[in-house]
C-alpha cells in the first residue's frame, strides 16, 4: 500500500507532454439558459490551465462535465484516455480517484479534526491501510501545504487560508494525476490569496500534476497558469499564455486587464 500511494517524483520529460484531457465542442443548457456553447480545449500532462471568466460564464459547469457530475447535451469529453460520457458508475468512480477536486469552500467536515478530514478519503478508498500508513500519509500531506501543526485542530480553529490549504492537502493525499481548483482564492485577502496561488504552483512542480484552475481573479491567472482560456457567455474568447491574452481587444476580456 505504501508503494501504491508513494508520491511521484520523476522529472518531467518530453514524453509527458501528451494531452490528458480533450474536450471537443461541448454544449450544455439548463432549460432555455445556454451555459456552454461549443467549448473545446485540451490539457497537457504537467501543465496548469486557467479557465478565466466572470461569474456565470459556465466555468464551474465545465469542470463538472469533466468528472461526470454533469453531462453535456452534446460533444465529447476524454480524460486520462477514458470517454467520460460512456463510463459506467464503477469506472467513473475509478477515474475520479485520479482527479482531485478542490471545492470553493474547501468542503471540510466541521465535526472532524484536520487529521480525520484527511484520513476520511483514504479509509473510504483504501480500507486495508494500517494506522501507521494512515499517519504517514496524513503527515506527508500536511507537510506539503505547510500545516503540520494543525493535525489535531478542528476546522473552526483555522483561518480561511488555512482551510483552503487543508482542502488541497486532502485532495493531494489520494495522489491525483489532475487537480481541479474551483475559485481557489475566493474570499481571501490579497496576501493569503498570493500564498494559495504560490502553493498551486508548488503542487504542480513537486508532484508533477496537471491542473485546471477556475477563477475570475486575474492575479491567480497570472501566477498559476501556464496557459489561459478565457470564457464569456459559454464560449472560448481567447486561449494562450497570459502575455498573449493580455493583448486582447475583446471587450469582455479586456476589462480584466484594465481593472
Task: Describe this protein's structure.
The protein has 259 residues and is an alpha/beta fold. It has two domains: 17-98 and 177-259, Rossmann fold (3-Layer(aba) Sandwich), CATH 3.40.50.300; 106-175, no CATH class. Helices cover 36% and strands 25% of the residues. It has helices at 59-66, 89-96, 114-125, 131-144, 160-172, 190-207, 218-224, 242-245, 251-258, and strands at residues 19-30, 33-44, 48-52, 74-79, 82-83, 99-102, 178-182, 210-215, 227-232, 235-240. The strands form two sheets. Strands 6-7-8-3-9-10 form a six-stranded mixed β-sheet, sandwiched between helices. It is globular and about 55 Å long. Residues 1-16 have low confidence and may be disordered.
Tell me the series of helices and strands, N- to C-terminal: EEEHEEHEHHHEHEHEEHH
Mean pLDDT: 88
Give me the secondary-structure category: alpha/beta
Rg for CA atoms:
18 Å
Low-confidence stretches: 1-16
CATH architecture name of the largest domain: 3-Layer(aba) Sandwich
Biggest pleated-sheet summary: 6 strands, mixed
Write the layout of secondary structure elements.
Elements: E1 19-30, E2 33-44, E3 48-52, H1 59-66, E4 74-79, E5 82-83, H2 89-96, E6 99-102, H3 114-125, H4 131-144, H5 160-172, E7 178-182, H6 190-207, E8 210-215, H7 218-224, E9 227-232, E10 235-240, H8 242-245, H9 251-258
Parallel strand pairs: 3-8, 3-9, 6-7, 7-8
Antiparallel strand pairs: 1-2, 1-4, 4-5, 9-10
Q: How would you sum up this structure in a few lines?
A:
This protein has two domains: 17-98 and 177-259, P-loop containing nucleotide triphosphate hydrolases (Rossmann fold); 106-175, no CATH class. The protein contains nine helices and ten strands. The chain is 36% helix and 25% strand.
Amino acid at each position: 500500500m505504501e508503494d501504491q500511494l508513494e508520491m511521484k517524483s520523476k522529472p518531467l520529460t518530453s514524453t509527458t507532454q501528451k494531452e490528458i484531457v480533450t474536450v471537443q465542442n461541448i454544449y450544455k443548457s439548463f432549460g432555455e439558459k445556454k451555459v456552454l456553447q461549443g467549448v473545446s480545449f485540451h490539457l497537457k500532462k504537467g501543465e496548469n490551465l486557467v479557465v478565466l471568466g466572470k461569474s456565470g460564464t459556465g466555468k464551474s459547469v465545465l469542470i463538472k462535465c469533466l468528472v461526470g457530475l454533469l453531462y453535456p447535451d452534446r460533444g465529447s469529453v476524454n480524460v486520462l484516455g477514458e470517454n467520460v460520457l460512456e463510463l459506467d458508475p464503477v469506472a467513473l468512480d475509478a477515474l475520479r480517484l485520479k482527479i482531485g477536486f478542490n471545492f470553493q469552500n474547501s468542503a471540510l467536515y466541521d465535526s472532524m479534526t484536520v487529521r480525520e478530514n484527511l484520513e476520511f478519503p483514504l479509509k473510504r478508498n483504501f480500507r486495508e491501510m494500517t494506522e501507521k500508513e494512515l499517519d504517514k500519509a496524513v503527515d506527508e500531506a500536511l507537510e506539503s501545504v505547510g500545516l503540520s501543526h494543525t493535525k489535531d485542530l478542528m476546522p473552526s480553529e483555522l483561518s480561511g487560508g488555512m482551510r483552503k490549504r487543508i482542502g488541497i492537502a486532502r485532495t493531494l493525499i489520494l495522489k491525483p494525476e489532475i487537480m481541479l481548483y474551483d475559485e481557489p482564492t475566493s474570499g481571501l485577502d490579497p496576501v493569503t490569496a498570493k500564498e494559495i496561488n504560490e502553493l498551486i504552483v508548488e503542487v504542480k512542480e513537486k508532484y508533477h500534476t496537471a491542473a485546471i484552475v477556475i477563477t475570475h481573479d486575474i492575479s491567480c491567472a497570472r501566477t498559476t497558469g501556464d496557459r489561459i482560456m478565457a470564457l464569456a457567455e459559454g464560449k472560448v474568447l481567447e486561449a494562450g499564455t497570459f502575455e498573449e491574452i493580455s493583448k486582447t481587444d475583446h471587450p469582455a476580456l479586456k476589462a480584466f486587464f484594465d481593472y
